[in-house]
Write a structure and sequence with these properties.
mainly alpha; MetI-like fold; 3 domains; two-stranded antiparallel ribbon
Length: about 550
């Protein structure tokens, strides 16, 4: 006999190694499966995961301050917070605020900072109306020196020039902030509004202010720059540049457009520039260092401020500190939410266990009839069920009337069972009870009755047989129902809003308030993130103690 032992790798029918062929077949199978679920996966990512991630990102995002007041933020970097900032900071504020007011962005910034310091919203709103009047003083003075300053075409020619476009694109992008995403390819001599390199070097503030005006006019308003008279802020910027003695020296040798007009303006006497006094005259709150501290503290693009507010703390120039005692509300709400959710869970366990036991041990016909009664609340609107409890629990409601009729309660001493924690617990126990019964029933159905009979035949009492044999096997159902009810409870806000009053509301009610009423989405996102973290921690603890593999939902 000859030896036919194969020494090489096993081959498939097409001659390729068997292992490679199997890997290829498995990969093709996985790709087909992925292609089948890809539409659903994309749908879930776009409509569920992406909005949640975006909302959670809002809890740390804080770019509105730096985008709206870029020059002010830069000037405040070295401010020591000992006194009101100097003139340079107020000048930067004037130009930033002027552009923000034109774009209607100053009120949004005021609303954001008002979350941290009450009163800032009205400060930005009033000053946003006055910045044009502050700049108009310099506009009138320059037009009195030479009426040509009133001509839009003169300004376009004076500030035109393709050279240096890249540098001015950066200035414009910094100024425009959140208004538009501007592409550098759009800035060229054909458009005719980008300040040239030479004039930008001589009049840097004017070039920046005109670039902001031109960019806003072209990209936001959609108008022709050469046909629009510059903003008052451009005249104020020119006055700031002409105030510098070095500007007059540079203009002496300048031969570009409107050179004579600029030299005449430099030689004339312009109104004194005191932006600090003008802004404080507009609103005296600009003299308060604590408002400036808020702007400085919340100028970085990302912040922990929302999370600190969510735990009753705040950022200060001296570090993190607790809020005053009368402002600490979120700690109370979190504790109340946890406590009441646990009480609702325990109530559902106490009421649901006997019902689930009956459903699992009664004959099928009777059990099915009772199951319909358990599922009946699902066919009724949540709002209707909650409103019904409001009618039943009020002092002139059904329950109090019955208690008075039975003589258990005096008519003048009716029980207060609504607009408090008791009303919330009762209403939510009724609403969430089916979510407790169904998992327990599905587990109890699988427990053989022969186990109890065997235990009794060995001498165990009814209680011992139940506690030592039946109950341990029903724990997975209790665990599944408890974790389901608890997670649903801490996120409820409709029922606590209707029947909870001031002492029975949850943290979810505050989240809903910030999303729909105060529009403080950052704080709402921070509160939601903390609530999510609490749920995940409890889920992890449950997994360690009970084991998530033992949970059975039926």
């Amino acid at each position: 006999m000859s030896d036919t032992t194969q020494t090489g790798p096993m081959l498939a029918a097409d001659g390729t190694p068997l292992k490679r062929s199997l890997r290829r077949a498995l990969r093709a199978q996985k790709m087909r499966a992925l292609a089948l679920i890809a539409p659903l996966l994309i749908f879930v990512l776009l409509t569920f995961i992406a909005p949640i991630v975006d909302m959670l990102f809002r809890s740390v995002e804080n770019q509105i301050v730096g985008n709206t007041l870029p020059m002010t933020v830069e000037e405040l970097r070295d401010w020591d917070a000992a006194d009101t900032p100097d003139e340079q900071v107020f000048r930067a504020l004037f130009f930033d605020l002027f552009l923000a007011a034109e774009a209607k962005e100053h009120t949004k910034l005021g609303s954001r900072l008002n979350y941290e310091e009450s009163g800032i919203s009205s400060l930005f709103r009033t000053s946003g109306r006055d910045v044009a009047d502050i700049g108009e003083v310099f506009q009138d003075a320059l037009e009195e020196i030479d009426p040509a300053f009133e001509e839009a075409q003169v300004w376009a020619e004076m500030m035109s020039g393709g050279a240096g476009a890249e540098a001015n694109t950066r200035l414009l992008s910094n100024q425009i902030g959140r208004l538009e995403q501007l592409e550098s390819s759009a800035f060229n001599g054909d458009i005719g509004f980008v300040p040239g390199a030479e004039i930008s070097e001589i009049l840097p503030n004017t070039a920046r202010a005109y670039a902001a005006f031109a960019g806003f006019t072209y990209f936001v308003d959609g108008d022709v720059v050469a046909e629009e008279e510059p903003w008052e802020a451009v005249y104020a910027a020119l006055a700031v540049d002409l105030e510098d003695p070095a500007t007059a020296t540079a203009l002496a040798s300048y031969s570009g457009p409107s050179a004579d007009m600029l030299r005449a303006a430099a030689a004339a006497e312009l109104p004194p520039i005191d932006m600090k006094a003008a802004m404080i005259d507009s609103n005296k709150d600009w003299a308060r260092p604590n408002f400036w501290e808020t702007i400085q503290t919340y100028s970085p693009p990302y912040t922990t401020g929302y999370f600190l507010n969510a735990v009753d703390m705040e950022k200060t120039p001296n570090g993190i500190a607790l809020r005053s005692e009368d402002e600490r509300i979120y700690g109370i709400l979190f504790k109340r939410t946890m406590f009441m959710s646990l009480m609702i869970t325990f109530s559902c366990v106490a009421l649901g266990y006997p019902i689930a036991w009956l459903l699992a041990n009664l004959p099928s016909r009777t059990s099915n009839l009772l199951m319909i009664l358990v599922l009946l609340p699902f066919w009724t609107s949540l709002l209707v069920r909650t409103s019904a409890w409001k009618v039943m629990l009020q002092q002139q409601g059904v329950i109090n009337d019955v208690l008075v009729w039975l003589g258990l309660v005096a008519d003048e001493s009716r029980l207060v069972m609504i607009n408090n924690q008791f009303g919330t617990i009762v209403a939510m126990t009724h609403i969430l009870l089916p979510f407790m019964i169904l998992p327990m029933y599905s587990v109890m159905q699988t427990i053989p009755q022969t186990y109890l009979r065997a235990a009794k035949s060995l001498g165990a009492t009814n209680w011992t047989a139940f506690w030592r044999v039946y109950f341990p096997q029903s724990v997975p159902g209790i665990g599944a129902g408890s974790i389901l009810v608890f997670i649903l409870a801490i996120g409820y806000y409709i029922t606590p809003e209707i029947v909870g009053g001031t002492t029975g509301t949850f943290i979810s009610n505050r989240i809903a308030y910030h999303i729909s009423s105060s529009l403080n989405w950052g704080l709402a996102a921070a509160l939601g993130t903390i609530l999510l973290a609490v749920v995940l921690i409890l889920y992890w603890a449950y997994d360690k103690i009970v084991g998530i593999d033992n949970v059975k939902l039926g």
